[in-house]
Amino acid sequence: MFASYIEALLHKDGIHWNNNGSVGNKDDMGDGATITYSFIGDNLDDLDEDRYRDFATFSDEQQEAIRSALAHYEEVANIKFQAVDNDGTLQLGYAETFYDWNGDGEIQDTEGAGGLATRPRDSGATVVIDRGNTALTPGTRGYNIVLHELGHAVGGFNDVTIGRNPGNQYTERDERRNRGMNDRTLGAWQDNNKYTLMSYMGHPNMPGFQPRTLMLYDIAALQALYGANWNHNADDTTYSWGLNESFIETIWDGGGVDTIDVSNQTRRSILDLRAGSFSSIGSYLYGTKERNNLAIAYGVTIENAIGGSGNDTIRGNSARNRIEGRSGNDEIYSFAGNDTIYGGEGDDYISAGNDNDYIFGEIGNDYISAGDGNDILNGGLGIDHMFGGEGNDAYYVDHLDDVVIESVGNGHDGVISSVNYTLGAHLEDLRITGTVIQGWGNNLNNTIFGNSENNSIKGVAGNDILYGYQGDDTFWGDDGNDTIYGGDGNDTAYGYTEDDFLNGEDGHDKLYGQQGKDTLLGLAGNDILSGGDGDDILHGYGRGMLEIDRLAGGSGADLFILGESPISEFVWLPNVGAFYKGTFGNQGLISTVSTAKTDLINAHKLPYQVTTMLGSLTVNIGDITRLDGYAIIEDFNRGEGDKLQILGSRNDYSVTQQNVLGSSAPDTVISFAGTNDKLAILQDTTNFSAIADFVSVA
Predict the structure, then answer these.
(1) Closest Cα to residue 504, out of 533, 534, 483, 532?
(2) CB of 547 within 8 A of CB of 524?
(3) Cβ(264)–Cβ(243) below 8 Å
(4) pLDDT at position 167, please?
(5) Residue 193 and which of 146, 332, 537, 657 are 20 to 30 A apart at CA?
C-alpha cells in the first residue's frame, strides 16, 4: 500500500485522528484533521503515577516552543491544531518521566525517560516531556523529544528501533510492539535520525547534533495519514543557513521556484536537489565534514542551487534547474530538464542531462559535457574542454587552446569564436566575433559568418556558405559547391573547384570562379568578375552610379548578364535640379520623388512631361545626363558559346563598334537604343551579333 519505510513507522492498524476527534484506521487514511490541544499542570487520572511524577507547568518560552513544534506538523501535513483551555484531544504536560526499560515489571528511579506519549485513542492522547529537558528550542535534545513524542500521539508512530538493543535497553516485548503496518521494520542503515526522529539512534554522520525538523520518513508517513500541505512555502523560497553552521533538517516545500543558497559557505558543500536525497552543508565537526545533514522530502521540487567558495558538488533534478557553482573547483551534474548552469570561478567539471541546456563555465579551465539535446556550451575564460553529445549544439570559444569535441551523427553543431578558429571534426557552422579575422571550415557542409573586420574565411571541403558582412574580406570556397556573400567592403572571393555562387554585394569586389560552372554577381561597386574554367554566369550590373565592372568569362560557354536596366536607371535633369526614378519605356506624366539627388527615372523616350512642386515643365533629350555604370567584358567569345543576357527586346539596345578602351583593336559597345548610354563594352571584339549573341528575358 505504501513504501516500506512509511509502513515501518505507522501503527499496524494505521491509527490516526479523524476530523471529528475520533480515531481512524488504515481504511480511512489520507484525510486532514483538526486536533484540539491543551496544557496540563497535574497528573491525569489515567496516567500511571510511577511513570509520571511531579508535574510542573511549562514556562511561557517552553509553551511557545511546543506551539512551534505543532506548527511544524501543520507545515508538512493537513493537520490543524486548535488550542483550548482544558480537555483537549491532545494534552501536553511537563513532569518527571520513567519507563520499565529492562522489562522486570518494576520502574526504578534510574529508569528515566526523555518523555512519554500515548497513541491516538478515544479518550485522547497525552504527551509528557521530562522536566530534565529545559531547553525546547529547535536543534536541542528537548525539541527533538517533543517532535518524537508528537509522532506517537499524532501519527500513532512506532519507536522504530528493532534488533539494535544497545545495552539491552529494549525488551523483546518492546521490539515486537515496534513492528509497523504489514509487519514492516526499517533496515539497520535506516534506523537513525538521518531518516526518522522515531529512531533512538542519532544521526550517523553528526554525533551530538539533534535534528530541528521532522525528517524524511516522518514527513512521508504523516502525509500518508493526513495528506500533504501543499500551501507551505508555495511561493518562490530561498533556503540558506549561517556561515559554516551545523544543523540537521529536512525541507518540505509546497511549490514555487525555489533555491538552496550556500553562497555564504566557505567550506565544501554537497548539494543534491532530488527529492529524497541528502546534502552536506556546514562546518567541520571533530575534523570531519558535515555529511547528509539536509534532506529534501519526497514530492518536493527545488529548482535552483547556488554554491559557495569551497570545492562544491551540486546535483540537479528533473526540473528546469539554474545551478551556480560560484568560487572553487566545483562538480556540477544536471539531469532531465532544460537547465542553466554557471560554473563560476575555478576549474569546474560540469555534466548536463539530455535536454536543452545552457552551460557557462565562466572563469577557469573547465570540462563541460552537455549530454543529448540542443545545448549551448560556453567555457568562458580559460582553457576549456567541451563535449556536446547528440543534438544541435552551439559552442562559445574564447581561447586558442579550447577543445570542442563532437561525434559523427550527433546533430548540426556550430562554434561562436572570439579567436581565430578552424572547425574540428563533425562541426558544421562557425561565427567569428569581436576583432577576430580568421574562420576556416572542415570537410562538412559548413556555414561560416564573418564580422566587421577584414576576414579570412575558408570553406575547405563540402558545400559551404560563407558570409563576410563588413570589412575587406578574402574567401576561399575550396572543394564543393560553395556560396559566398561578400557583404560590405572590398572583398576577394575564390570559388575553386565545382559549381560555386559568388556574390560580392557592396564594395569593389574581385570574384574568381575558377573551376566549375560558377555564378558571379558583382552588385554595387566597381567589380572584377572572372569565371575561369567552365560555363559560367557573370552578373556585371550594379546598384550605384558610374559603376564600371570588368568581366572575364574564361574558358567555357559563359553568360554575361548586363545592367540593372531596364528596371531602373539614374537620370540627372539639370534644368529641374533633381534625380528621378522610373521604369524602362515609361512615357507621359512622371512625378517628382525627391530633390535630394537620390531618386531616379528612366528617360529613354523623351520628351517627358515632368510634374514638380512648382508646376510642370518639358524635359528634352539634350538636357539628360545618364549616370549608369557599365561592364567591360574582356574575353567575349562566341566560339565558346558566350552570350549576353538582356531585359526586354533586342530593339531596345544598339550595338556599335568603337575604340573606347584605347587598344589597337576596336570594341563592341552595347547601349540603350536612342541614347549614348553604355551598358557594356566588349573589349577588342567586333564579332558580335545582336541576333545570335543576345539572350533576352522578359
Answers:
(1) 483
(2) yes
(3) yes
(4) 53
(5) 332
> What is the sign, positive or negative, of the torsion defined by CA atoms of 263, 268, 271, 277?
negative
pLDDT score at 688: 82
Give the pTM: 0.82
pLDDT above 70 for 225: yes
Of 224, 259, 281, which residue sits at a domain end?
Answer: 224
The count of structural domains within the chain is 2
Last residue of a domain, one of 582, 598, 626: 626
Range of the domain at 158: 4-224
Phi, psi of 429 (to 5 degrees): -120, 155
For residue 258, being part of any structural domain is answered with: no
| Per-residue pLDDT tens over the stretch 629-640 | 777 887 788 778
pLDDT band of residue 696 (cuts 50, 70, 90) is confident
User: What whole-number distance in Å separates Cα of residue 469 and Cα of residue 460?
Assistant: 20
For residue 531, pLDDT over 90 is answered with: no
Tell me, what's the pLDDT at 545? 54
pLDDT score at 173: 57
CATH number at residue 35: 3.40.390.10
- Please check whether residue 149 is in contact with residue 138, taking contact to mean a CB–CB distance below 8 angstroms: no
Q: Is residue 178 part of a domain?
A: yes
Q: What is the mean pLDDT of residues 122-139?
A: 95
pLDDT of residue 36: 96
Distance, CA of 39 to CA of 60 (rounded, Å): 11
Q: Is residue 72 part of a domain?
A: yes
Q: Is 359 in contact with 352 (CB distance < 8 Å)?
A: yes
pLDDT of residue 21: 84
pLDDT at 240 over 60: yes
Of residues 284 and 514, the one with the higher pLDDT is 514
619 CB burial (10 A radius; 0-12, 13-18, 19+):
buried
One-character DSSP codes across 181-242: GGG----TTTSSTTT-TTSSS--TTSTT---SS--HHHHHHHHHHH-B-TTTT-S--EE---
C-alpha grid cell, residue 566: 531596364
Residues 6+ apart with CB under 8 A from 60: none
Residue 576 has pLDDT above 90, yes or no: no
- On whether residue 585 sits in a domain, the answer given is yes
CA distance 21 to 87: 12
Residue 167 main-chain phi, psi, to 5 deg = 65, 25
The most distant pair of C-alpha atoms in the chain lies apart, rounded to whole Å, by 135
420, 421, 422, 423: CA torsion to nearest 10: -160
Confidence of residue 172 (pLDDT cuts 50, 70, 90): low
| CA 32 and chain centroid, separation | 40
How far apart are alpha carbons 515 and 666 in whole angstroms? 30
What does each C-alpha distance from 314 to 308, 311, 349, 679 come to in angstroms?
11, 10, 10, 70
pLDDT in tens, 341-378: 999 999 999 999 999 999 999 999 999 999 999 999 99
| Among candidate residues 455, 520, 460, the one with its CA nearest the CA of residue 490 | 455
Distance in angstroms (rounded) separating the CA atoms of residues 641 and 643: 6
| Helix 216-226 and helix 60-76, axial crossing angle in degrees, nearest 10 | 70
Tracing cell 542531462 back to the chain, one arrives at 353
Cβ atoms of 290 and 262 within 8 Å: the answer is no
